[in-house]
Amino acid sequence: MKRPFALSAALLSAFLGAQANAQTLSNTTVAFLMPDQASTRYEQHDYPGFLAQMKKLCPTCKVIYLNADGDATKQQQQFNSAISQGAKAIVLDAVDTAAAASLVKRAQGQGVKVIAYDRPIPNAKADYYVSFDNEAIGRLIATSLVDHLKKMNMPSGSGVLEINGSPTDAAAGLIKKGVHAGLASGGYKPLAEYDTPEWAPSKAQQWASGQITRFGKKIVGVVAANDGTAGGAVAAFSAAGVNPVPPVTGNDATIAGLQYIVAGLQYNTILKPSEIVAGAAADVAVALLKGEKPKADKTLFNTPSKLFVPTLITAENLKAEVIDKKLNGQPIIATAVLCKGYEDACKKLGINP
Questions:
Q1: Between the CA atoms of 313, 317, 323 and 325, what dihedral angle is there, to the nearest 10 degrees?
Q2: How far apart are CA 138 and CA 49, in angstroms?
Q3: Same fold, 25-132+274-308 and 134-272+311-348
Q4: For residue 8, what pLDDT is reported?
Q5: Contact 224, 230 (CB under 8 A)
Q6: 187: Cβ–Cβ under 8 A, 6 or more apart, which residues?
Q7: What CATH number labels 25-132+274-308?
Q8: Which class does domain 134-272+311-348 fall in?
């Protein structure tokens, strides 16, 4: 007769625990702080993905969304504002990952959980880090370019330009590390490299224009760390009258980047649907608020981390990976959106507008 009682007690304990968790999370405030508007992904993908998952996990939770517009001081003010508004967990994609260390320590000192998002915070141990594998991204785009240049029989002694991301972004540093490893796998030396302040496409374009004047036909390719800086490079070559534009890499699979691949102006990009990482960040935030310990794949910068595997996209697999595959039952990008203004180029890739 004791076993049924023990089972009932266990069930009662689980029920009471679930109720306690629900009460703990009821009306809890969670902040989602993004770094800039230079990339459209934050408004179009990251925040909607985070909000949707939070609504599933905690319908009564309040979500604060703020974007720092590339201003570290503004982000610090937003961070402090989130805490003053009662945020118990903050998902932070830092403008300046070094300066963000003090924010993490301040929040944790007040019992607020901090999830580093997309960009790690090397100088402080956040409660968790969620991202795609940035070093793998750099290695993928660079190795892909090297292989492509070999197939094009580009002569030895020619080289590539390397356009990195923001010097204040630790994720950009990881991408750069991966790029260096990828380029080392082939015979194409970096002619010059540039850390792009704030990831600004206009600054990438300005720098690339100077290098085109300096190196001319020695440039056989460009390793750009994201689609925005890739677009800046393409614009520089086009303005200089270079036709065809040398192969240019990218990252983020933005609509503009994918359209450039369709048009033959960009060689590759990285598909990393932000909704996936945003949803994972919501999972982690809720787990931490419940007092649970989210499972980690690895430890990066002394922080338990979940790193997703990115997918390399070129014209060869764009249709299969971006159009034919679905995310939450929907195409990753609608054909009508991708092919607007690029109808003939889409048809050449087997994509019917």
A1: -90
A2: 25
A3: yes
A4: 53
A5: yes
A6: 146, 150, 156
A7: 3.40.50.2300
A8: alpha beta
Per the structure block, which two tokens stand in for 18?
């679930």
* 227-250 per-position pLDDT tens digit: 999 999 999 999 999 999 999 999
Chain-wide mean pLDDT for the chain?
Answer: 92
What is the Cα–Cα distance from 285 to 268, expressed in whole angstroms?
33
- Cα distances (angstroms) measured from residue 214 to each of 119, 203, 219, 225: 33, 17, 10, 21
Q: Distance between CA 146 and CA 160 in Å, rounded?
A: 10
Question: Domain segments of the chain: what residues?
Answer: 25-132+274-308, 134-272+311-348
Q: Checking phi first, is residue 155 left (phi over 0); if not, alpha (psi -120 to 50) or beta?
A: beta
**DSSP codes of every residue in 157-202:** T-EEEEEE--TT-HHHHHHHHHHHHHHHTSS-EEEEEEE-GGG-HH
201-215 vs 227-239: helix crossing angle, rounded to 10: 40
Tell me which amino acid residue 272 is: K
Query: By the 8 A CB rule, do 106 and 74 touch?
Result: no
Q: Which residue has the tokens 């982000």?
A: 75
Cα separation of 259 and 282, whole Å?
A: 31
Cα separation, 290 vs 6, whole angstroms: 25
Average pLDDT over residues 51-57: 97
CA distances to 38, 306, 312 from 295, rounded to whole Å, are 32, 8, 26
Q: Which two tokens stand for residue 123?
A: 């100088």
Cα separation, 123 vs 345, whole angstroms:
46
pTM for this prediction: 0.86
Whether omega before 244 lies within 30 degrees of 0, making that bond cis, reads yes
The whole-angstrom separation of Cα 251 and Cα 131 is: 14
